């Protein structure tokens, strides 16, 4: 982060994604304890199996721990649950009410599913991670229809892509992301600093938009 | 802290060293929207971050009409003398037409390389129909930029690339993308063994500390600056090299000095 000039980051634990969410979430809280630059993101499952508390209790714990966003990995190749109402509906409704940003990976969740989520949960800030230059034809019609859709920029590196989104939709949907430590933050930073945008739009993408989402949590 | 940290964070072009992009494209592509894919937009973005020269081969060159692609490339070169240079696209399934294209394109003095996309053309790098293309490259001592992607690409994976590079030491081989985001270690192993292999850094999934790893394990002299512009915006790649924890001389080599060492860029039109 220092090399790239990044001041703060939202982080989740690899164990929460690759092994078991509750274990990874608790490891995360241990590892970032006392580190003011890093803010927790929890990986969630629906509560039915008892691995994660029911939504009301879960949200209380999240608030107490200062969790600033959540991630979910649905599908049988990942955490083996569905985002459909019959499975994750109670959890998603609770997140929607509390306006907790939900990060989903474009490589895991299909665009029909994204459309359905945006339509069903209009207050839920939905952040798509891993969007690349191949996704604009899915993203643009969704940006036109939904104000609660966001893209993190770690792979959103198509030629002129940042400026084109801002030209069509403003800077609102773009949130700075790096995917560190898998990718380098140095590339992600230069994408924004060299963007041909107003300083106001650059600042919004670099951090202002995310800070606003975090301020709007827990209405 | 990099000597370019302030400039990059201020969004200012790096203007005290030469930056040459050896891996770029041009124009539209079937499965993506490319907002800044025309030559003028590419030049505008190059100016924004300080890239002086870009060697390009149009996107149509590997899955569609490579003759049309080369014509687009030649037109772009004429419109931007001294800024845009060409890599002639060839396709091993059409060996005679490929040779015709090499002869046509290399009449233009700003065409300086050959581009091969084995996965896109679905023609293996070791296909015997490629031999006459390789002979042309050897005769003119050219770089061939070949797309490589991990080990699941049957047409141009890193090992296949290395075996062909080893069998043709008379050609300078650029391992496009260095095998992709998880290919770095194997790319270095192969380049250490085979001296006519050069590593390309163009990637949208930029592995953390990859530049430092290449410099430490192979040396900056065999690492070439490439961006995949306009598939990928070149500006993040400036940050990747410009902020890497390497020496100034290593940065100079990667950004442009290595390319200068092997390619004679005709600049008569811009003097």
Question: How is the topology of this model organized?
Answer:
The complex is a heterodimer of chains A (219) and B (271).
Chain A: E1 9-11, H1 14-18, H2 21-31, E2 38-44, H3 55-65, E3 69-72, H4 85-98, E4 102-105, H5 111-120, E5 126-129, H6 136-145, E6 149-152, H7 161-169, E7 174-175, H8 185-193, H9 199-215
Chain B: H1 5-9, E1 20-24, H2 39-49, E2 53-56, H3 60-63, H4 66-79, E3 84-89, H5 95-105, E4 111-116, H6 118-121, H7 131-139, E5 143-147, H8 158-167, E6 172-176, H9 184-193, E7 197-200, H10 210-217, E8 223-224, H11 235-242, H12 248-262
Parallel strand pairs in B: 1-2, 2-3, 3-4, 4-5, 5-6, 6-7, 7-8
Beta-strand share of residues of chain B: 5-15%
Strand content of the residues of chain A, in percent? 5-15%
**What is the third-level CATH name, the topology of chain A?**
TIM Barrel
How many extended strands of chain A?
7
- CATH architecture descriptor text of chain B: Alpha-Beta Barrel
Strand order across the largest sheet of chain B: 1-2-3-4-5-6-7-8
CATH secondary-structure class of chain A: Alpha Beta
Report on this model:
- The complex is a heterodimer of chains A (219) and B (271).
- By secondary structure, chain A is α/β, with parallel strands linked by helices.
- Chain A has one domain (9-215): TIM Barrel (Alpha-Beta Barrel), CATH 3.20.20.140.
- Helices cover 44% and strands 13% of the residues of chain A.
- In chain A, strand 3 (69-72), helix 4 and strand 4 form a beta-alpha-beta unit.
- Chain A is globular and about 50 Å long.
- Chain B has a single domain, classed as Metal-dependent hydrolases (TIM Barrel), CATH 3.20.20.
- In chain B, 40% of the residues lie in helices and 14% in strands.
- Chain B has 12 helices and 8 strands.
- An 8-stranded parallel beta sheet of chain B has the order 1-2-3-4-5-6-7-8, with helices on both faces.
- Chain B starts with a helix and ends in a 9-residue tail after the last helix.
- The mean pLDDT of chain B is 95.
- Chain A binds chain B through residues 3-5, 132-134, 136-137, 140, 155, 157-164, 180-191, 193-196, 202, and chain B through 1-2, 5, 8-11, 31-37, 41-42, 44-45, 48-49, 181, 204-211, 229-240, 242-245.
């Amino acid at each position: 982060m220092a090399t790239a000039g990044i001041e703060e980051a939202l982080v989740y634990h690899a164990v929460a994604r690759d092994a078991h969410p509750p274990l990874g979430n608790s490891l995360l809280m241990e590892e970032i304890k006392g580190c003011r630059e890093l803010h927790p993101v929890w990986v969630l499952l629906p509560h039915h199996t008892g691995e994660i508390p029911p939504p009301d209790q879960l949200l209380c714990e999240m608030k107490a721990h200062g969790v600033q966003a959540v991630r979910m990995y649905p599908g049988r190749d990942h955490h083996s649950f569905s985002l459909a109402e019959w499975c994750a509906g109670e959890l998603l409704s609770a997140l929607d009410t509390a306006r907790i940003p939900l990060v989903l990976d474009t490589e895991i969740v299909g665009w029909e599913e994204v459309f359905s989520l945006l339509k069903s949960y209009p207050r839920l800030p939905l952040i798509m991670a891993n969007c690349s230059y191949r996704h604009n034809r899915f993203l643009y019609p969704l940006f036109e229809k939904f104000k609660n859709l966001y893209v993190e920029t770690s792979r959103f590196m198509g030629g002129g892509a940042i400026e084109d989104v801002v030209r069509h939709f403003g800077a609102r949907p773009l949130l700075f992301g790096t995917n560190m430590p898998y990718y380098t933050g140095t590339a992600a930073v230069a994408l924004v600093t060299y963007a041909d945008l107003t300083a106001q739009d650059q600042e919004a993408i670099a951090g202002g938009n995310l800070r606003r989402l975090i301020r709007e949590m827990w209405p | 802290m990099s000597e370019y940290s302030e400039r990059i964070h201020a969004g200012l072009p790096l203007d005290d060293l030469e930056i040459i992009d050896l891996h770029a494209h041009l124009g539209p592509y079937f499965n993506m929207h490319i907002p800044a894919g025309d030559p003028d937009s590419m030049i505008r973005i190059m100016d924004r971050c300080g890239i002086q020269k870009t060697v390009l081969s149009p996107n149509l060159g590997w899955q569609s009409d490579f003759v049309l692609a080369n014509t687009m490339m030649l037109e772009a070169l004429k419109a931007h003398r001294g800024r845009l240079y060409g890599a002639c696209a060839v396709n091993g399934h059409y060996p005679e037409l490929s040779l015709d294209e090499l002869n046509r394109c290399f009449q233009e003095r700003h065409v300086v390389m050959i581009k091969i996309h084995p996965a896109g053309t679905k023609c293996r790098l070791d296909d015997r129909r490629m031999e006459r293309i390789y002979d042309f490259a050897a005769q003119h001592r050219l770089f061939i930029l070949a797309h490589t992607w991990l080990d699941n690409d049957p047409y141009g994976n890193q090992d296949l690339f290395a075996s062909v590079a080893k069998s043709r030491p008379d050609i300078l081989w650029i391992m496009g993308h260095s095998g992709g985001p998880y290919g770095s270690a194997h790319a270095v192993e192969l380049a250490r063994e085979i001296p006519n292999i050069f590593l390309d850094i163009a990637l949208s999934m930029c592995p953390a500390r990859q530049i430092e790893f290449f410099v430490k394990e192979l040396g900056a002299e065999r690492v070439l600056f490439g961006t995949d512009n306009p598939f990928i915006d070149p500006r993040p790649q400036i940050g990747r090299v410009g902020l890497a924890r390497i020496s100034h001389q290593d940065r100079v080599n990667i950004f442009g000095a290595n390319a200068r060492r092997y390619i004679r860029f005709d600049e008569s039109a811009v003097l």
